[in-house]
Amino acid sequence: MNSKEFDSNAPVLDVQHLWVRYDAHTVLEDVSLQIAGPGEILGIIGPNGGGKTTFLKSILGLIPISKGEISVFGLSPEKARQYIGYVPQYNKYDYDFPISVLEVVLTGRLKRAGLFHRYSKEDKAAAMQALETVGMAEFKDKQIGELSGGQRQRVFIARALSNDPKFLLMDEPNTGLDTFMQDELYRILADLKKEMAIIVISHDVGAVSAHMDKIACMNRRLFFHDSKEMSREDFIAAYGCSIDLVAHGVPHRVLGTHPYAHGADGSTCGCGSTPLVISDLAAETPAAGQKDETKEAK
Amino acid sequence: MLEILDALQYTFIQRAILATILTSIACGVIGVYVVTKKIVFIAGGISHACFGGIGLSFYLGLNPLIGLLPFSILSAGALGFLSKKTKVSEDSAIGILWSLGVAIGVILIYLTPGYAPDLMTYLFGNILTVPASDIWLMIGIDIVILVTVVLFFKEFLSMCFDEEYTRVVGVSSDKIYLLLLCLLALATVAMIKVVGIILIIAMLSIPASISRKFSHNMKTMMVYSSVIGAVLSLIGLALSYQFDLPSGATIILVMSVVYLFVVGVSEIQKRVQRKNVEVDFE
């Protein structure tokens, strides 16, 4: 099914009926997802242990899949990896490790530089370009442990960008970032999405929603309607209950600037945010009663 | 003191000094990987598995180093394979290999007719009995290690820092890891005569750990750790000659004391800095 060559016309991602099992435990169940091309950020939210990281790793071909098909740019994950940028979870590193910022970013060019060769001028230029993009060029000679959490996160984004990816996968990029730095991060992503498709996964609904173009929900199964709207049933199915996700319970952390008309009656909540919309829920809830509704849900 | 200078004219002392320096280079370079990748106990597992190789050599009547070489590489390969390709945890694999190697060695030596006079040499090391042929072997091993590290420097660095991302960019981190374990096995072979199986762990970890306090750059750390290893080993050697103590154990004692001193000083520095910061706040 997968052809040999990179095909820029092929869909960025085509996942068909993906199942992942570890022993008797099913992590992903019948997940299907298509991303046609660049231009949008897809947010995948869901509870911890819901299979989000597993999903990203199966797209990268890092873990064996039990059933289904994954193709990226019409290629198998293993072959497509070189076109994918990946920003793993932030807390998995030994920050005492003797490696500089530039050296970390250069590892993104490891394969391209080739065995038995040093990194070329071109590799170094690409790494510096990636550091410029995330605003970290001046820190290139710092040891990775000397940076703050947000700076490190930007370095890992630069590493993903150094190889000129066509598709960017980010695992919990908000971790360790304060609100200001999160805004900065999404500003960078808004630029990048013109050139590449982006998937961001997070367990924190409020933090991602305002900046995503589309939102999917994942808890073993994927709930996605190719839009930013999620039905209440989806959320209940994904999270088990509807409490934490309520768009208006947390939106002030993610204030956008566009007021949004809610639900069928067109009422606005007036908080001025562009949170993800839970259409069914919003329709039922009078705008003025948001706070009560949050409490009720608890 | 004069006694030590006099000693320099003996061939076996000159050879001991050369062996010490060669060992320090091998373990200085590999030790940096061992310490930063946190695989000190894998080094311990491989060195103890080597005891099986020594036993085999005695049993077959070969030069122990000839039995060691394949055994160490084999144990490194087995360790890499068990932990990466099966569900056995690396931790358990190390424990099994560690005891199995020693068990094979003990049985084979028991089965060998006659007394095995060199046994203690391999457990605790005796640098004063290193023959010229071993020096040549150590030079060879040092060259192989240095050339490999130069050729694979960026792969080793990437794999040690982030195995998963190394795979993501399309380089087999499993193969690179296996290569590193093989180099580790080679370094172990080079070191066995000098410090013995039991003390190899210290020889690999202490100079590299000390160098870590002075540098955050992989290459610089390797140079520092080789030099620190050589200087401390030679001091240990001199002391062991002076006071008629076992050389391997004395070398390790010197290294440990210096390590504790360096760690102590750096801790005190940190506390003082922290205190100064607090004072600034006030």
TrEMBL record, chain A:
Pfam families: ABC_tran (PF00005). GO terms for molecular function: ABC-type vitamin B12 transporter activity; ATP binding; ATP hydrolysis activity. Its EC number is 7.6.2.8. InterPro entries: AAA+_ATPase, ABC_transporter-like_ATP-bd, ABC_transporter-like_CS, Metal_Ion_Import_ABC, P-loop_NTPase. It catalyses: an R-cob(III)alamin(out) + ATP + H2O = an R-cob(III)alamin(in) + ADP + phosphate + H(+). The keyword ATP-binding applies. SUPFAM superfamilies: P-loop containing nucleoside triphosphate hydrolases. Residues 13-245 form the ABC transporter domain. Keywords: ATP-binding, Nucleotide-binding, Transport. It is an enzyme of class 7 (translocase). Belongs to the ABC transporter superfamily. Required for corrinoid utilization. Probably part of the ABC transporter complex BtuCDF involved in cobalamin (vitamin B12) import. Probably responsible for energy coupling to the transport system. PANTHER family: METAL TRANSPORT SYSTEM ATP-BINDING PROTEIN TM_0124-RELATED. This is Cobalamin import ATP-binding protein BtuD. It comes from Methanimicrococcus blatticola.
Automatic annotation (TrEMBL), chain B:
Its main location: membrane. InterPro entries: ABC_BtuC-like, ABC_TroCD. Keywords: Membrane, Transmembrane, Transmembrane helix. The chain crosses the membrane at residues 12-34, 39-59, 65-82, 94-115, 135-153, 222-241, 247-265. GO terms for cellular component: ATP-binding cassette (ABC) transporter complex. It is a multi-pass membrane protein. GO terms for biological process: response to zinc ion; transmembrane transport. It is found in: Membrane. Belongs to the ABC-3 integral membrane protein family. This is Zinc transport system permease protein. It comes from Methanimicrococcus blatticola.
